[in-house]
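CATEGORY: protein folding

GOAL: derive structure tokens
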Amino acid sequence: MPYMEEICVAGGIIEICKYYTYRVNVKGEKRAARKKPTSEAQKKVNQRKAEKELRRLMAANFRNGDTVVRLDFYKRPGGSEEMQQMIEKAIRRLRSAYRKAGKQLKYIYVKEVGPRGSRHIHMILNREEMDVLSLLAKYWPHGGIHVDPWTTGPNFQKLAAYFIKYAQKTEETEGHLIGKRWYSSRNLIKPRIKKTVIRSNRFREKVAEKKGYTVEKDSVRSGVSELTGFRYFSYTLVKLEESG
């Protein structure tokens, strides 16, 4: 009765997930009744998947001291395509400024287009001892600039959830996805993910402690997958010196 063990190392976090899957023989493991997901249920599944991918990417590339940014607009742009042109121009100039200082710019951003007219760019970028606010004031003439340092450690779960929420709002407002959910620089490090088939009768729902790490609060989860009908167990470890 084998099961899958997935271990993801991204920056200062390690995510561990054990689960059965229909791709591996799970003879003897009772499977819950599997229902065809409704469009709303499938939407939630897709959202959680996107959040997981994004938080891992953030964790692998950003640290305490990096910068979370919200860019506003004095004059409301027509939609996400016009916003895209504006942010791409600003990023080209930012990248050039970083390069002149001997640094590499890293970023991830999403566009927010709300049904009541809200228009914002939400971004995280590496600080690298650069004066980010002064640079943005120079390269973003389109509206207000809100800058905050990232200080809550290597787990980006909440920030990733916010970014996906804004991207989803944009998709709903415009009727379909235009471009990507999020945009990122090409120089980002990819999280290291290892999947292993474990030849064992049953997995234990127990956290395996690791020296130098602590269990992330509220990260321990277990239940039955909506898609496969099989059980799963997951948790996150955070490197002690990098916790916020």
